[in-house]
């Protein structure tokens, strides 16, 4: 590319990737992972790309390289899922892929010969769960904004419970006309790790709209129609899979169909105690003890062990079951337990306090960046500029001050602050 590559280009790449809304702290395993995914020229180029989504002409100006030289390599990175190409209605914008939703999913959705998928699976699992740095950096300080949210199964809702369209998988499907189906990255990863076969089909990763177009364009998924999307949704209900989608109220781009044995999100919630990994729906399962027969099917169905069985209270009617179901307040609000209840003792009801889901991906990314101390990279997004490097450090230090951070993330200032940012970005 006409630049002198430093002695440790992968460490430079690591610093660049760590400035995404999902942090990627540097560890020995992460070095192995990026060395396996990026060639040295790719690592050098990605480490210099702007932090914000940018057009090819803007990238060329910032890097001082001709578009004709940059385009083939950037398009090659898109075909690997290491860079995202986003159509904004006028032109493609390019941004470095974060680890999730990003190069983990796209790497493990890749097909074709001679790909070291087993090695990739080992490295991803070791980095995200074997070491503690990744999960702690993203959820260990009480961060609440995650990439994905649980969707309630509509059949699990109690009578007369109102549900908004953005909370319904069926409504998300109806508002789109383009859909794709690809390999579930988590299930594919577990397959290459040698886990017992999962009864759920490998192809269950569904996307819509711009997300579907990106996956189809770059060979990660195939097109399907709306009828097929509806069939997959019905199958997931029958199988008792957890539905999850982008953590946004508008323009959700995918629906995941998650099993407890393979899904990394559910594994994270279940095994680490970081319940914010998957944001709950605005509903929670409630037990009607008068209808509970103590069968335990709900506890078996819950993929994160938030439905359990407890012994009946002393002095209770001996004719009642010896055990009754109980639900942890951290319940995802997915409704899988209620789908399996034979008596209707479990239903989803509104939470006492409604969950905040960001309006769109812009708001979600900004909130993630504020929580994870990377917001300054979106204001000063040129990694090559020494002046902007100084401003990132200055503004980043200011935003880390606890009173400032609390104010910007609080209900009072959040909406005005994000509205001002939206006007600036527009």
Characterize the structure shown.
- With 426 residues, the protein is an alpha+beta fold.
- Helix content is 44%, strand content 14%.
- It folds into four domains: 9-139, Arc Repressor Mutant, subunit A (Orthogonal Bundle), CATH 1.10.10.10; 148-276, no CATH class; 283-350, 2-Layer Sandwich (Alpha-Beta Plaits); 361-425, no CATH class.
- The strands form four sheets. The protein has a six-stranded antiparallel β-sheet with strand order 4-8-9-6-5-7. A three-stranded antiparallel β-sheet has the order 1-3-2.
- Strand 2 (83-87) and strand 3 (92-96) form a beta hairpin.
- The longest helix is centred in the last third of the chain and has 15 residues, at 411-425.
- It is globular and about 80 Å long.
- It starts with 8 loop residues before the first helix and ends with a helix.
- Residues 1-6 have low confidence and may be disordered.
